[in-house]
Amino acid sequence: DTAVSQTPKYLVTQMGNDKSIKCEQNLGHDTMYWYKQDSKKFLKIMFSYNNKELIINETVPNRFSPKSPDKAHLNLHINSLELGDSAVYFCASSQSRGGTEAFFGQGTRLTVV
Amino acid sequence: GQSLEQPSEVTAVEGAIVQINCTYQTSGFYGLSWYQQHDGGAPTFLSYNGLDGLEETGRFSSFLSRSDSYGYLLLQELQMKDSASYFCAVGTNAGKSTFGDGTTLTVKP
After folding, report:
1. Between chains, do B101 and A42 touch, taking CB under 8 Å as contact?
2. Range with the lowest mean pLDDT among A92-101, B8-17, B75-84?
3. Which pLDDT does position A1 carry in this prediction?
């Protein structure tokens, strides 16, 4: 019955690899997000989708590509992983576009070695 | 762009009341939210203010003054389990949500 679920929870990979993180929400929300939390715990928005349409794309390298097959799913694909990509990535969803009352997934701890 | 300021650390004792302030600068302000995050966990939603005034949810209350671009989170009857990081977040009409850098609250016996 998890509201926002993302997989995997942990991901360890080598530099240069390509990896994907999946996210699904069963709350019926229209808006989904990807956030990156670095080692200092700063939470930065990366992308925001509303009804499968990209509405926010922060200054994120082109190696990061979100895909939303339907409004309940927002996946994140990362190409050519770099050491600096190591962080915790959170998926979230909310009913409104303003990002209010967002529900977060458990996070994916990505470690690039 | 958006910017938020909140204290980096706050310490209080069990049973006390603590207030975490948040000032922000943004265009297209939509609302101010507060989140709690325990170490190793995900942020969890605590409270939201879209209009001026006080919102109360149990031991937690949140206040907003749009004219002052200021809000705060008030935690009453502090418990040890309240030790966590607290984030304020500004949402905009364009759909962007920007988080502050977080306040680490330590509750001591």
Report:
1. yes
2. A92-101
3. 66
